[in-house]
Amino acid sequence: MDPMSERDVEKDYTVAEFAAKLRRLADALEAGKPFRIQIAGERFTVPKNARISVEHERSEDEEEVEFQLKWALADADEDPEDDDEV
C-alpha cells in the first residue's frame, strides 16, 4: 500500500481489549513518548506531540463519542518503545 494513500478502518473490541489499549496509549502520552500500533496489517507511530480531541455526535437514534489523535506525517518518525497489534 502506498503510505500516502487514503485509508479509513474501523475495528470493534471487547471492553477489556479497548481498556488495555487506552491504558497503554495513556501511559505513553503521560510519559511524553510516541505510541506504535498496528491496525489491519499496517503499523504506524502516533507521535508524542499528536493533537488529541474528543468528538460527540448525536442523531435521532444513536450517539457516538470518538477519541481522535491527529498529527503531521513528518512528526511520525519518532522511535516508539513497543508495538500493539490490532
From TrEMBL:
Pfam families: Amphi-Trp. InterPro entries: Amphi-Trp_dom. It comes from the Bacteria. Residues 9-79 form the Amphi-Trp domain. This is Amphi-Trp domain-containing protein. It comes from Kribbella yunnanensis.
